[in-house]
Amino acid sequence: MMPPKGRKNRRSLGPDVISNLPDNVIDVILMRLPCKDAVRTSILSKKWRYHWCRLTKLKLDESLWKTKKDKLSPTVKFTKIIYQILTLHEGPINKFKLDVVDSKRCPTIDNFIYFLSRNDIQHLVLHFPWQKIYKMPSSLFECSQLRHLTLHDCSIHPPSAFKGFSSLVSLELCRVTISFELLESLINHCPLLERLVLQVSEILNIIEINAPMLKSFDFTGSISSLCLKNVPLLTKASLHLYQGSSVEAENFYLAKFFESCFALEHVSLYFGDKFDYACADQAPTRLPFDHNRVKHFYVPYMNPRESYKLSYYLCLIRSFSYLESFETEVLNLHDAGVVESLELERFSDVIFNHLKEVKLKIFSGMTHEMQLIKLFLAKSPVLVRVLIDPSYLCIKNLISLDRRSEIFAEFSNFFRASPKAEVVYMYLDNQTSRFNQIVNFD
C-alpha cells in the first residue's frame, strides 16, 4: 500500500527543518522551556547539542534533580548540575533564578555566584530554604551590572569597600539577616533604585532611606521608626507593621512618614497583632496636614473591635482629602455593637469630596460594618459605588440568604450625599453563579 502523496516528503523534511532553524529562533524556543527540557534538546541534532549552553536566562529548582527514583542525594545532584553549567556555559548570563526553598539542605553556590559576577548578571533571584540562613559570599557585591536583586532567607554583609550597585532599580530582601546600619547604607548607595521590598523578621531600629528615584516601597516587619528622607517620586507604599513597631499619640511617626512622601498616590497600611499602641482616646483625629495626593487606600484585615487600630485608620482617611477609592477586609463575625468612632457625629467636619468607590470584603452585616457604609454614603457627594463582597461567608455558609436580604433592604434607608451612589451586593449562590444586587436609592 502506497503512502499518501507528500507524506514521505514531509517526514524527510522534519529533521532538516529543525536542524536548519536560525540561531535566534532556537534561542527563543530554548528560553521558553524549563531548564531541564532545554538541556534535553541537545539530542535533536548536532546544531542543537550545545546551544543550551549559550542561554542568557537560567532557572534552577528542585524539578531538575528530584525524581521518584533518586539514588544520589539532592545536594550531590545539584552540585553536578552547577558544575556542568560552569564548565559548559558560554557567553553572558543576564538572568538567573535559584529556588530551593523546599530543600532540607542548602546547597553551596559560592563558586556559581562568583561565576555570575564575571558573566554580566543583571537579574538575580535566590530563594533559599526557610530558616536555613545561607551566608552570601562577598562576590555578590562584585556583580556591578545588577539591575534586579531578590534574596530570601540568607545573610549578607557588604564589604567595607562596597560602593553600592550603581545600576540597581529593584531590590527585594525577605527574611535577610543584615544590620540596620548596613541595610540603610546598602539602600542609600543604589542611586537608581525604583522598587524596594523589605520583609524583616527581627525588630529594626530607625532606618533613614535616601532614594531619589524610588517609586514603590513595601515594608513588612517591626521597626521603631522609619524615615524616608528623600523620596520625591514615591507613589506606592505598603506598610505592614508588627510587634515592636510603635505609634504614639504625642510622637505620631506616621505623620513624619506621610509628610516626607508628598507624591504618594497608593497606600496600603496594616497594624498587625500585638502592635504597640497608645489608648484609642489619645489617637490623633487627623494628621497635622491634609495629604492631597493619596487617591487609593487599602486596609487589609480591619477589625472594628480593635478600636486603637481603627482610630489610626480613620485618622488617615480624614487626612487623605483627595481619596478616590477605599478598600478593606472586615474580620469580625461577632457584633460589637455601636462603635463610637464610626458615628456620623464624629465626622461633622469631614467631606470626602473625591471618593468614588468603596469596597468591603468578608462582609457579614454587623453593626460596625453598616456604620461604615452609612458614613461613606452620607459624606461622599461624588460616590459612585459601594461594592460589598460576602463571598467567603457565603461559601462557608456563615450568612444565610434571609440575612442577606435583610441587609440589602437596610441599605435603602441610608442617606446618600451622591445621587449616583449605588450599593452593589455580590455573593455566590448554591450553584456558584455570581449575582449582583444593586440598591439605587430610588
Automatic annotation (TrEMBL):
Coiled coil residues, start to end: none
InterPro entries (alphabetical): F-box-like_dom_sf (IPR036047), F-box_AtFBL13-like (IPR053781), F-box_dom (IPR001810), FBD (IPR006566), LRR_dom_sf (IPR032675), LRR_FXL15/At3g58940/PEG3-like (IPR055411)
Lineage: superkingdom: Eukaryota
A Pfam family of this chain: LRR_At5g56370
SUPFAM superfamilies: F-box domain, RNI-like
Family annotation (CDD domains): F-box_AtFBL13-like
Signal sequence range: none
Domain called F-box: residue spans: 15-68
Protein name: F-box/FBD/LRR-repeat protein At1g13570 isoform X1
Recorded name of the encoding gene: LOC107818726
